[in-house]
What we know:
CATH class of the largest domain: Alpha Beta
Structural class: alpha/beta
Largest sheet: 9 strands, mixed
CATH superfamily of the largest domain: P-loop containing nucleotide triphosphate hydrolases
Strand content: 5-15%
Strand order of the largest sheet: 4-3-5-2-6-1-7-8-9
Shape: elongated
Radius of gyration: 24 Å
CATH topology of the largest domain: Rossmann fold
Oligomer: single chain
Distance between the termini: 35 Å
Low-confidence stretches: none
Bound molecules: guanosine-5'-triphosphate, magnesium ion
CATH architecture of the largest domain: 3-Layer(aba) Sandwich
Amino acid sequence: MDYKxxxxxxxxxxxxxxxxxxxxxxxxxFYTINNIVRLIGWQRRKYSHAQAxxxxxxxxxxxxxxxxxxxxxxxxxxxxxxxxxAFAAFDAGxxxxxxxxxxxxxxxxTQNLDEGECALIQRSFKAxxxxxxxxxxILECEAxxxxxxxxxxxxxxxxxxxxxxxNILITATxxxxxxxxxxxxxxxxxxxxxxxxxxxxxxxxxxxxxEDGVSSEYDNEIHLDAAKDTLLDDNEQNLTTRITVGTYFKxxxxxxxxVLLDSPGVNFSENKEHLKISxxxxxxxxxxxxxxxxxxxxxxxxxxxxxxxxxxxNIGRKNxxxxxxxxxxxxxxxxxxxxxxxxxxxxxxxxxxxSPVVCPFSARAAFLAKKSMSESLSRTEQREFDNxxxxxxxxxxSQYYEKKLLCGEIKKPRNEAERLLKNSGMTYLEKIIKDIxxxxxxxxxxxx
Length: 448
Ligand SMILES: Nc1nc2c(ncn2[C@@H]2O[C@H](COP(=O)(O)OP(=O)(O)OP(=O)(O)O)[C@@H](O)[C@H]2O)c(=O)[nH]1
Ligand SMILES: [Mg+2]
């Protein structure tokens, strides 16, 4: 199982009914899993070790020693296979038959299960390894009816990580707003956005199937519940060129199996290392869509021209979207934003893109709009929000998306946040990405 698949795993423990039990029960449940994981020798794996830390923190809030006697209510014994498999990231290839047999045997003996119950444990292990028939049987099984909601989450997770990811490479010259764009798509602050050239690594952001309340990160160390500082800080001990983050994407792309690849901003004179990493990624072809972020405040620079030429030469027949970020900066009394877009389109055509799709957008406005939907904004953020709101009421991008890009209409916004998401281009951008990912809109392909 590759790293992109591992981090697509949502934490199923957050949905486990054991959370409703008292601390002693949760403690017994945790140490029962821990003992079995050790018995089958999985504790040596880096991921299992991180998972043990995560479970401990989640179930015991970090404290509580192992109880003398590990007694769990019988019905929880049937959930153990799923949590044990979660320690192997549901990687069927890594869950060796002998280890599973040993684990199942241990559960049956320690919990005094009868023959039928033991068969159910074995079936649960099979389901945890992704067996369709086992899933059908378990979801029909009366003895498991009490935890059906939880089982559906587990199954969704397993089926989700099996899907082929849709990789979207994001490229731009420096400071165009790639990181802000990623934060706006994800609806969380996971990628460092600032004014100076900063991102020097490839950030790989892997979507999870459902919201589990945590973002995981692999940056030399594994953090399955990475704090904001950890997410935004680059670990100097990471000698590779990659940082991986797993998180649920809030918004219209939620539940889609997507991997966003944030490449370092390209600047030809200053940082050759950035250029090398980005060029390699573009040439590798390991993506299905490329999002090229244009900085509306610096259109047509020499760096831009060079980079566009490089992309045009190497993109082949892949889908490409041009996101004209910081469109808010184009809203003024003496310039018509739609004329600027047309000029930009012609410029792109002159660089070799036959029918470029240009999406005017404001990543910062979209990020604030999404953030305001799940948490309160600081006073400064609220002022920013209001500013963007007014600007995008004045110049509404909907017409452009609906008439020019033929995006189709979208749902009427129900509140200010939804209105800003729509007017800043976010809702349309998400829709376009989703449509292309799911096989629609072939006219978006450049260079045909
Ligand atoms: N006005 C305006 N500013 C924005 C917008 N989006 C991003 N910015 C700002 O532009 C600056 C650069 O944004 P980043 O997201 O860090 O850009 P980046 O492309 O990831 O930069 P590097 O990775 O360093 O190349 C930050 O100060 C952002 O706040 C926008 O829609 N409008
Ligand atoms: Mg960046």
